[in-house]
């Protein structure tokens, strides 16, 4: 199977200067500056096969956007090798951009003051798409994303959800084999999110489109991606299936106790100190969540219920979001 993306020992460093303190320091800064090097992406390697849908996740500042910018040719790597659709994104720019689609949640590729369909026509010319191909492919895209009624409106008159659906359609005018999505559902309501997810699944199945998705919304990843690459401080700390992550890190249950009176973590910790349990404050008043290993579930419930007056108990599977938060706190995944 062909690889859509090949990345080997990819690194991106930025220089930032630190100013000295005081008047004398400011004077010295005029002549010599103290630079320090920040490594935003730190020797990462991975491949993505044609047709895969991969979630690329990490906290703010982990290096996700910097990676995407190198993969799309916006930034030049400091060192390492990048091949996307068999090309070097930075060196073969003109041919390369014909083979990718990009949607950045925070930036628009549509012209602000003209009607959406005028933007589409301009992009059709830029990508040299024939009338026949445009009609066949975009008819389906416009219908599926339900943007027909929006085509005559200028982009500035659209709501965020409407604009994001049009952005997605714009990125697909030339039916690229590879789609980069950076926070595509940020700030959107649930129905729009569902529509976008269904559409992405459909183009992946219909055209074998490769999708690399960066998002903070873990439900996007769960709905679309079987594989996740997790980045922390510029390094990959996990690359594998979402299922494997859940099976190995999602053991046990989360038990939410709502107490009648205020309880401290010190009291709960002392009560369950010999059991495999971690406590954290719940969102509601007087509630605590216990992250409990399978062997300790009945003991934890028994002790807490015997010792305190309880208003409510809820038992849940451990959420993917919780698993990912725990992994970031610990810093790496093995196995």
Radius of gyration: 25 Å
Please report the distance between the alpha carbons of the first and last residues.
Answer: 25 Å
CATH architecture of the largest domain: 3-Layer(aba) Sandwich
Fold-level CATH name of the largest domain: Rossmann fold
Count of strand segments? 13
Binned, the helix content reads 25-40%
The spatial strand order of the largest sheet comes to 5-6-7-3-8-9
Question: How would you describe this structure in keywords?
Answer:
Rossmann fold; 335 residues; single chain; 4-stranded antiparallel sheet; globular; Alpha-Beta Plaits; alpha/beta; 6-stranded mixed sheet; 2 domains; 12 helices
Account of the protein in words:
This protein is of the alpha/beta class. It has two domains: 3-246, Rossmann fold; 251-317, YebC, transcriptional regulation domain (Alpha-Beta Plaits), CATH 3.30.70.980. The protein has twelve helices and 13 strands. It has helices at residues 22-31, 64-71, 93-97, 116-126, 131-145, 160-171, 190-207, 218-224, 242-249, 265-271, 297-307, 320-330; strands spanning 3-18, 34-49, 53-58, 79-84, 100-104, 178-182, 210-214, 227-232, 235-241, 253-259, 277-281, 287-292, 310-317. The strands form three sheets. It has a six-stranded mixed sheet with strand order 5-6-7-3-8-9, with helices on both faces. The protein has a four-stranded antiparallel sheet with strand order 11-12-10-13, covered by helices on one side. The protein has a three-stranded antiparallel sheet with strand order 2-1-4. The protein starts with a strand and ends in a 5-residue tail after the last helix.
């Amino acid at each position: 199977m062909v690889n859509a993306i090949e990345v080997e020992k990819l690194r991106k460093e930025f220089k930032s200067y630190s100013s000295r303190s005081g008047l004398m320091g400011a004077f010295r800064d005029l002549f010599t500056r103290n630079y320090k090097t920040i490594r935003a992406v730190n020797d990462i390697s991975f491949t993505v096969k044609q047709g895969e849908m991969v979630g690329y996740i990490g906290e703010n500042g982990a290096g996700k956007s910097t990676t995407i910018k190198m993969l799309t040719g916006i930034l030049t790597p400091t060192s390492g090798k990048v091949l996307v659709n068999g090309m070097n994104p930075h060196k073969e720019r003109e041919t390369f951009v014909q083979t990718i689609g990009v949607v950045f949640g925070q930036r628009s590729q549509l012209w602000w003051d003209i009607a959406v369909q005028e933007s589409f026509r301009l992009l059709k010319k830029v990508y040299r798409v024939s009338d026949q191909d445009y009609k066949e492919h975009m008819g389906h895209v416009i219908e599926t994303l339900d943007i027909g009624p929006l085509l005559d409106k200028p982009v500035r008159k659209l709501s965020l959800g409407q604009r994001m659906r049009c952005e997605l359609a714009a990125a697909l005018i030339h039916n690229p084999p590879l789609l980069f999505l950076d926070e595509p559902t940020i700030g959107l309501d649930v129905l729009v999110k569902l529509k976008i997810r269904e559409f992405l699944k459909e183009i992946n199945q219909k055209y074998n489109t490769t999708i690399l998705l960066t998002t903070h919304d873990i439900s996007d990843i769960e709905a679309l991606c079987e594989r996740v690459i997790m980045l922390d401080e510029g390094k990959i700390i996990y690359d594998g299936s979402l299922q494997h992550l859940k099976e190995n890190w999602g053991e046990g249950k989360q038990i939410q106790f709502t107490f009648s009176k205020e309880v401290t973590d010190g009291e709960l910790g002392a009560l369950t100190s010999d059991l495999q349990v971690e406590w954290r404050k719940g969102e509601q008043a007087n509630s605590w969540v216990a992250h409990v290993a399978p062997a300790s579930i009945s003991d934890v419930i028994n002790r807490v219920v015997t010792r305190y007056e309880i208003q409510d108990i809820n038992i849940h599977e451990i959420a993917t979001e919780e698993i990912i938060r725990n992994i970031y706190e610990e810093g790496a995944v093995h196995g």
